[in-house]
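Feature request disguised as a bug report, sorry. It would help if multi-protein outputs had a clear separator. Right now it looks like this:
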Amino acid sequence: MTTLPYAAAALVAAFFSQSATATCYVVYGPDKDIVYRAPEPPVDMSRQVHETLPRVAPGSTLVFSPDNFGCELTVNKLPLAAAAAAAPGGMRPARADRG
């Protein structure tokens, strides 16, 4: 039975990959009010949060959870330019050609 070890490894990998994903991201501002809540992260999660979050929401705290209760009501009080620049593959402001 050579397939049993492979099946067990695939099952363990599936458990770890599911537990590592968040389904709701909430950013609390310095005054502890919610400034962002959505199923999509407000920052590039491939980088460390302490590097990216202060650029988008200075003095804030990011909390993420596998539970999506309340996340269906999206809140986004982040500055549009900072949020777009921080998003992976985010939009960059158009440059005006000077002629």
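(second protein starts here, but nothing in the output says so)
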Amino acid sequence: MKKLVYIANARIPTEKAHGIQIMKMCDAFTAQGIDVELVLPRRLNNIKENPFDYYGVKKNFKITKLPTLDFIALELGQSGFFAETLIFLIASRIYLLFKNYDILYTREEWAGLFFKDFCMEVHSLPARPSLLHKKTWRKAKAIFVLTSFTKNELIKLGISENKILVLPDAVDLAKFDIRISKEEARKKLNLPQDKKNILYTGSFYLYDWKGVDVLLEAVKNFREDFLFMLVGGSEEEISNLKSYTINLKNLKLIGHKPYAEIPYYLKAADVLVLPNKKGSKISEEHTSPLKLFEYMASGRPIVASDLPSLREILTEKEALFFRSNDAADLVRAIKEILQDPTRAEQLAKNALQKVQNHTWSNRAHRAIDFINK
């Protein structure tokens, strides 16, 4: 049996999406018949739940936490994060001197400073890649990117096309394609049955590229028989939004929820919104949002910003698009999909069918097959 070590400088569990991806990929690698060990830093964490329980993953791989200096908890900004990352990578290098393994897998952009033979995921590119970035990418045995745009940029930077594979994110179908009606989901979550429910999941950063500000501007154009729900914000994000949204009676801000509850919120919705903004290269070309695949797996209709990154997965057969950054056009799209239930149902059905190919198991299988070649 092959041994894979996954190095991730991440606080696990975490309320952020990368925690889901890391844990689900480790689980999926194990399902490929590989012995997996996830190596993490030992950091302060307000979430005390066991990572396997938190993410609904079987305890079929090992998690090792290495000692580090938690500069991130001291709120030292980017310099603190960089210092903590270097300390963690040094600790990982020392730890692995005494380990036998076949595959070293990581998301760490400075891995090339400490390791020679590794595979890595690259989820975004810096505006001005440094020599250290390029050195890491050249040393990597295989590079996995989320979109073709990222692959093409790496090729332009001199990275061999033969070692780059486009590998979009994925979803656990069993967790999100749950057999429960919209009415049952609303009852479970104590939500009103008599309102049109428009849902967004993810962070609430107001002027971030994820487009929460565009969605909130659209909310102002709907009556109180509509309920817009934003699920997943931190306490700080919710606090920052309250003054901005105090007069919006048709808006409900819900903080971070356990991963296992999110499928019920999706099922309770009439429309799921993905309002990513243009103007950010991450948003336009590099992102492959986990929420996109979760939306698709829920069987609910999707309204999405018309961006190249999202078009890599979605077409007009699976979603209704609106002009990015345009709140008025988002209003139009939401009303259009609600006024045509037949079309909404067909879009949701098509999205659910397409997402069957985007499972964590398929993603891990493609990654291992690429590494072996």
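Even a blank line would do. Unrelated, but nice: The chain has a mean pLDDT of 94.
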